[in-house]
Amino acid sequence: MVDLIIIGAGPYGISLAAHAEAQGLSYDLLGEPMRFWSSKMPQNMFIRTNPRFISLSDPADKWTIDRFGLETGTELISPFPRPSFVEYAFWFARKTGIAFTPELVSRIDYVDSAYAVMTNSGNRYWGANAVVATGLQHFSYTPETFSSLPASLVSHTFGQTEFTRFRGRKVAVVGSGQSAWETAALLHMAGSEAELLFRGEEVQFAGEDNTSSGLKLIESSEQFYGLPLEQKRERWNTPRKGSVALFLKPYVDGKVKATGNASIEHAEVIAGGQVRLTLSGGDKRVVDHVLCATGYRINLDKLPFIGRALLEAIDREEGYPHFPLLSERFESSVPGLYFAGPLASHTHGPAFGFVAGLRQACRSIIPHIRQTQEQSKRRGV
Ligand SMILES: Cc1cc2nc3c(=O)[nH]c(=O)nc-3n(C[C@H](O)[C@H](O)[C@H](O)COP(=O)(O)OP(=O)(O)OC[C@H]3O[C@@H](n4cnc5c(N)ncnc54)[C@H](O)[C@@H]3O)c2cc1C
Q1: How far apart are CA 109 and CA 188, in angstroms?
Q2: Tens-place pLDDT, residues 103-141
Q3: I want to staple 194 with a disulfide (CB 3.0 to 4.6 A). Which of 184, 232, 233, 312 is the partner?
Q4: CATH of 2-138+297-378, one of 3.50.50.60, 3.40.30.10, 3.90.1150.10, 3.40.50.2020
Q5: Strand locations in the chain, DSSP E?
């Protein structure tokens, strides 16, 4: 039985393990290291966030991305290439001396005041506490309109790593956020004929300075939880306005067709195995594939590995039943069960959908676990 089981070995899981290691807590870090960033993202994409704000976290703030840059001679340019971020994460893991257990969690249950975890290798692990840090993986959202299409004709941008299979084919990219424009650019580079279709009138390209947005996000990771409920409600109920990073502009301008004010009313398979899309104004498009850059809907019930009894025992945010109700320390209503990353983005704010939130998550969760473990050891439990 370890003090802590961490499910998910992405930026949050790795940082949590670094804090646990430094605080002398025993832990199992379950999951393939950096799987999402290394094998579930377009291989030649850039990171939108300024590299100053994508440091992983250790208690002494010693192994920052700036130090990685200095020690390895990696230039911290913006936009930062994805592979360099993955290299940084592995460098960080070596420096902090953390250990990985690269197994996928298939089930977690709460049994006799401890967490019993089963992996797809058939191994069982026990922890006094557990943190779920599995990122966006289970939350990709595809609109109902496309539900009748077979999987060969429609897919979500999550998990797309390269686009050469679309060479010479017509692809409709649905959505207008960063991932839609990035996907359209990568499709064009792969030799595909891409058209962006989106509901809004036009797309907002955000300026080159991504420093202030990074700083704001870090600040909000520390402050959001303590805001008066009224202010939180206002933020929860205001739809977030997406924008597209300016660095993408040269890759799309004059290269990718973009059609705004276009709601897709209907999608059907036609003879020849193509898809016909009917837009709100009656216009039609015939394409070989539809790629939905339609975002993510965070929903606790979509995590496939949480045992039913445990899932039902987790209290939800009032009025927002898809989110767990979390304490200031990110603990759910089930003692010792914590959520870090997107599932904490309701109670603790939008920073937790980004790397920006991980320092605050680690600094809240790990000392709390250490304290409760010391208390239970003193009680002889
Ligand atoms: C296209 C795209 C671009 C992005 N760009 C940025 C950016 O520029 N800046 C930024 O801050 N954020 C960005 N994000 C958000 C990004 O997902 C998070 O910032 C970041 O990955 C958070 O780390 P995480 O550890 O919560 O999640 P992840 O990096 O997703 O790590 C979670 C890990 O858990 C693993 N896992 C899932 N289920 C299980 C299981 N059952 N057992 C074991 N392991 C499991 C996953 O494979 C994954 O490797 C982007 C997201 C997308 C989709």
Answers
A1: 46
A2: 999 999 999 999 999 999 999 999 999 999 999 999 999
A3: 184
A4: 3.50.50.60
A5: 2-7, 27-30, 46-47, 80-81, 105-111, 114-119, 124-132, 154-156, 170-174, 193-197, 205-206, 244-245, 257-259, 264-270, 274-279, 284-287, 289-292, 316-317, 320-324, 337-339
Q: Tell me, yes or no, if the two domains 2-138+297-378 and 144-204+241-292 fold the same way.
A: yes
What is the pTM assigned to this prediction?
A: 0.95
Q: Whose CA is nearest to atom 15 of ligand 1?
A: 354
Q: Range with the lowest mean pLDDT among 43-47, 85-89, 106-110?
A: 43-47
CATH class label, 144-204+241-292:
alpha beta
How far does the centroid of ligand 1 lie from the alpha carbon of residue 182, in Å? 17
Distance from the alpha carbon of residue 174 to the mean position of ligand 1, in angstroms: 22
Mean pLDDT of the chain: 94
* d(CA 276, ligand 1 centre) in Å: 33
Ligand 1 centre from 69 Cα, in Å?
Answer: 22
Choose the residue to mutate in 36, 41, 221 for probing ligand 1, maximizing ligand atoms within 8 Å of C-beta. Answer: 36
Closest Cα to residue 166, out of 141, 143, 146, 186? 186
Three-class secondary structure of residue 4 per DSSP: strand
Ligand 1 closest atom vs CA 135? 27
User: Atom 9 in ligand 1: which residue has the minimum CA distance?
Assistant: 49
Domain residue ranges in the chain: 2-138+297-378, 144-204+241-292
pLDDT number for residue 209: 63
Ligand 1, from 137, 298, 306: best to mutate by most atoms within 8 Å of Cβ?
Answer: 137
